[in-house]
Amino acid sequence: MDGGNAHAGEIALPGRRRRLLDRRSFLVGSAAGLSALGLAGCATSDGLILAEAARVYGPMPDEKFPIPAVDISKVDPKFYRRTVRYETKEPPGTIVVDPGNFYVYRIEGDGAATRYGANVGRDGFLWSGDAYVGRKSEWATWTPPKEMIRRQPEAAKYARGMPGGLDNPLGARTLHLYQNGAYTLYTIYASSEPETIGSGITSGCVGLLSQDMIHLYARTPVKTKVVVLPT
Known about the structure:
Elements: E1 5-6, E2 11-12, E3 20-21, H1 31-36, H2 46-56, E4 82-85, E5 95-98, E6 103-109, E7 112-117, E8 120-121, E9 129-138, E10 141-142, H3 146-151, E11 173-179, E12 182-191, E13 200-202, E14 206-209, H4 210-218, E15 225-228
Parallel strand pairs: 1-10, 5-15, 8-13, 12-14
Antiparallel strand pairs: 2-3, 4-7, 5-6, 6-7, 9-11, 9-15, 11-12
Protein name: L,D-TPase catalytic domain-containing protein
Pfam family, one: YkuD
Keywords: Cell shape, Cell wall biogenesis/degradation, Glycosyltransferase, Hydrolase, Peptidoglycan synthesis, Transferase
């Protein structure tokens, strides 16, 4: 895991290289609301919602690997990024994962949170508990574990790592989750597959749309607390 490398479990590779690989570890209204998406209770029409979503999920040409616009027609509007009321005792900055409802929250304080739609672990791979961000990666290298290569020989070509890029399972940004100083093998990562948002497809990791993950990543320092709720 050194040098920004990341191990992964069962994952859908994006784009033309997309396939399901069996991997254990890759399961894993306010002004702020207006700046996040403009949907903090003041949108009055579907047209406005779609226009704002198209802006927020537009292309990111200045990235190391330019990120295309999200096909928002593949995402239920309830999963668009927005600021919502969220009562919690957790301090501002805490990340709360709600796998039962396919949401990730960043606590903003004063009863508000930024909410993102997510994909989560499929049945049998859900987990809950407290963790923290032990490491952050941009365009991380993905390295399948040896156990995976034994089970899925087609993964052997990535034994020395798949370089960062649009086809890389970890995407543009990754938050690596730790407990008691040890890497849990779970991550919050950037997904380029909009149709997966709102579904359970991973082996426990949590995926956000690339634009959402970049937004969250920029606001999340190492040591940030992460709470994964039970389903």
